[in-house]
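2024-03-11 09:14:02 DEBUG pipeline.ingest accepted 1 chain
2024-03-11 09:14:02 DEBUG pipeline.ingest length=208
2024-03-11 09:14:03 DEBUG pipeline.predict start
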Amino acid sequence: MSRIITISREFGSGGRELGKRLAEELNVPCYDHEIIEMVAEHQGFAPEYVSQVSEKDIQVFYPSTIGNRFSLSHTAPNQSMKVVLAERDVIKRLAAQGNCVIVGRCADILLSDMAPLNIFVYADCASKLERCGKRAAAEENLSAREMQKKIKKVDKERAAYRALFTEDKWGNKESYHLCINTSGKEIKHLVPAIAMYAKAWFEEEEGK
């Protein structure tokens, strides 16, 4: 069985960086934007469109009251849904290839049959604002208040996206195996310990 690690994260918590550094530490592939590129190529959409698919549009087309949550048909007429379905297929295909780290996109739910180690990364508001400020494009030029609103908006969309796949609430500690608070921390200093935890976790699971 492949050793799959999924990273769910609050916007600005450093989850993407943690995923990439953890993959490097474990010497396995990390899939993040690569998924967008593969979906764009397969579906014939621009990568910018795939990365900016509106989860609100998806919610409108398939409201969360649907009983068979995300047992969706590949003939769904909505373009946003085509992107989501394609992402699901790409994630499953990549995971089937072997050990890896997958960032975001509800991979923990989509790959539940592969028994992944599911990590949630979070941080306090001040730390998220600082990280977002450091990585923001020069032309973005958002105030702290505007950035805080953006953080809340993205996290709300991530929670809504997860609701398409499961009733387990986004960010609830019960939904993950390991929750990591990166507040005031350098991600690179946390990774060696997380890698050790991951190795021990998989060894114990495989020994059952």
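2024-03-11 09:14:41 DEBUG pipeline.report The first helix runs from residue 15 to 26.
2024-03-11 09:14:41 DEBUG pipeline.predict end
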